């Protein structure tokens, strides 16, 4: 049995359809990601999975149970790391965890022991008695993750777990989440960081306008929707459309951006040789491997969505 299974899942707010008939299956022990631009329906989906927003239509089962009928039983087995930290700034790190544990009926002594173990796990053991307010953003984020684990959940829901963190803090959070996955905890996350999705997710879906437009492992998505390499060409301040016409047929696909031209090719060096062979001299050339971000932008577009 899948831990999370949705079929034809719909969420409407009045006349607006936020989630439009999606099918999702999350297996035990995997890290599953939702990617998509703002307004794609990721957070609405997560709120339905978290049993705080009832589906408008379709079927949703978590642990084989109905989130509308069995919400309390499901929530007792979930850990939730919201996008906003929502910590109690008046309490210490230890108190934030032990007070939260009481919502799950965890005895006080057990809560304190578990809280100290979790603070050590997120490398905040020396801050147990420190107030929350002066902590750095990375420390607060790690504390929220520790709080989400206080009830020893089988599924942890993480909404943008590393938004606003510096690279060092992000990598530390990734390491902690990877260790959770090694312990058999199922992770479900939304993220805007493509490298984060590649690092953490076994499988993911790309959502756009409330629908799922692609689903697979990160590397499989790259192989399906992009090429092995991408060549970025810059031609100074000259108009790029003229150069694009001269590059027709080089590589498998060409994309003109305001400041550069992207050539998608199986062999980037061979594509560069063809560019020079046509008498073109770019001001700069970069050959890189194709990434999940290339897939994301190809599927959802480069236009901002408000």
From TrEMBL:
PANTHER family: ABC TRANSPORTER ATP-BINDING PROTEIN, ABC TRANSPORTER ATP-BINDING PROTEIN NATA
Protein name stated in the entry: ABC transporter
Any one Gene Ontology cellular component term annotated for this protein: plasma membrane
Family named by the database record: Belongs to the ABC transporter superfamily.
Upper taxonomic lineage: Bacteria, Bacillati, Actinomycetota, Actinomycetes, Micromonosporales
Annotated PROSITE patterns: ABC_TRANSPORTER_1, ABC_TRANSPORTER_2
GO MF: ATP binding; ATP hydrolysis activity
GO BP annotations listed: response to antibiotic
Keywords: Antibiotic resistance, ATP-binding, Cell membrane, Membrane, Nucleotide-binding, Translocase, Transport
Membrane topology summary: Peripheral membrane protein
Keyword Transport: yes
Pfam families: ABC_tran
Superkingdom: Bacteria
Keyword Transport carried by entry: yes
Organism, as annotated: Virgisporangium aliadipatigenens
Domain ABC transporter: 4-234
Localisation: Cell membrane
InterPro entries: AAA+_ATPase, ABC_transporter-like_ATP-bd, ABC_transporter-like_CS, ABC_transporter_ATP-binding, P-loop_NTPase
